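In this section we turn from sequence analysis to structure. A common task in structural bioinformatics is to predict how a protein folds when a small molecule is present, because the ligand can shape the pocket around it. The inputs are simple: the amino acid sequence and a SMILES string for the ligand, here guanosine-5'-triphosphate. Study the lines below before reading on.
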Amino acid sequence: MTDDTPTTPETTGDDAAVARVLAREGTRSAGYTIFGASGAGRADALQNDSHYDDFRDGDQFDREDRAALRRVQGLSTELEDVTEVEYRQLRLENVVLIGTYPSGTLTDADNSLRELASLAETAGARVLDGLLQQRPHPDPSTYLGRGKAEELRGIVASLGADTVIADTELAPSQRRALEDVVKVKVIDRTAVILDIFSQHAKSREGKAQVELAQLEYLLPRLRGWGESMSRQAGGQVGGAGAGMGSRGPGETKIELDRRRIHTRMAKLRKQIKGFLPAREAKRANRTRFSVPSVAIAGYTNAGKSSLLNRVTKAGVLVENALFATLDATTRKYETPDGRAYTFTDTVGFVRNLPHQLVEAFRSTLEEVGDADVIVHVVDGSHPDPASQLATVRDVIGEIDARSIPEIVVFNKSDLVDDDQRLVLRGLEPTAVFASARTGEGIDELLARIAELIPAPEVEMTLLVPYHRGEIISRLHVGGRVLATEYVEEGTRVTALVHPHSVESMREFEVVTAR
Ligand SMILES: Nc1nc2c(ncn2[C@@H]2O[C@H](COP(=O)(O)OP(=O)(O)OP(=O)(O)O)[C@@H](O)[C@H]2O)c(=O)[nH]1
Ligand SMILES: [Mg+2]
């Protein structure tokens, strides 16, 4: 369903190109354009994926599913209009990005806008241009200053863009005011991230969480949404709201929608609570079996899934897109000396994560918070790895996981030159340089993991009745079996057991030596 035909601005004809260049003239002094007029430079924050095909083994077909439209389920048709129009329209649109920055922070704003471009592309939009305005604070009423907003309108018109995305979370009133000036739809970074999450969520829990986050975001914006909606829905405005003293077109509908949204949100919250016991049981199970766990955490697009695939052939979807992974995938693996552990791929982090989505991250965060070792993957080829490190560490700190041993991996080292290596070394002297693509550093990473995961070290001799075969399996998986003997009462085993599962094995312990 996706229109993949690469249409660059040049194809829109010479007139448009001229108009565009002229329109741009004015912005030079005022603003700062990131993406080249040719379209060639746009959002090349994402690199080409083509050599990576050998790591795909079927999950890539998800992608087509994702590109298809996704409905918010269980809502009335009316309401589907509201949410769908807004979120669906985001895709396949021609967008112009805007941002503001206080003086001295241009590089940061530049990186952030590039990231927004990647986000927009991931959501399915085509980025035509990006503009930054320097000002101490965003304008409280129109985000960009009034004059710049007017200029933006000219740029948008000359490019034929239909959407503007602001690199921030706009107040509902700001969004409306700016929309009134530029005359095309205005959305913000939060809406884009929510859109990506709603396209990518796969598990039932993930879907419910993302839908809840969307509705939370939507609720205070409903009035404005209604307005742009009626424009898009093609002329519900007018007729109904004509009478004097009437509440205006769409207003009643909005009230109705508001109530429906509340009801739906309550239902979703209940549903999400319902997932908790299953998740906890899974966790308890893992602790009981004492299999040490390693969580791969890191900024989005750092190459977490690629690393998991490289190590375990897990076949997790790898995509040159942000938030390709939204559900944790766990695979078993073994240290070189044969100790089993689990390897879990998690959702990537991003700066300015919409607060509505923090809940949606919770299960992934638990995964990280419970781990015995955190493999913190950083894209070594990224222009600002330090801030990626900091963003992820903040989150790790928030979930009290700072005491968990962490191995920092600078991935994509195939793209990192010697100078950059020195810089990275300076940031993190003990980091492992690795490449999921070439395999560099993978053995070193695995050796580090083996050093850090807790070893089974308590020697116990147990007598396990024959009908309790699962205990023997547990010893094989989580511990190290040294000797086995079959006697009349059951299996007599001598094994090394993890310190934290000694208690659960007590009942089988052979206390007195025979
Ligand atoms: N050159 C190079 N590219 C890599 C390497 N590892 C991953 N990539 C590319 O980086 C992109 C992101 O990889 P993923 O494994 O999907 O990243 P992720 O961290 O799981 O991303 P999300 O799940 O979206 O948060 C893909 O285009 C990969 O092909 C590497 O070692 N070298
Ligand atoms: Mg991933």
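Residues 1-91, 224-249 have pLDDT under 50 and may be disordered. As an exercise, try to locate the residues that line the guanosine-5'-triphosphate site and compare them with your own expectations.
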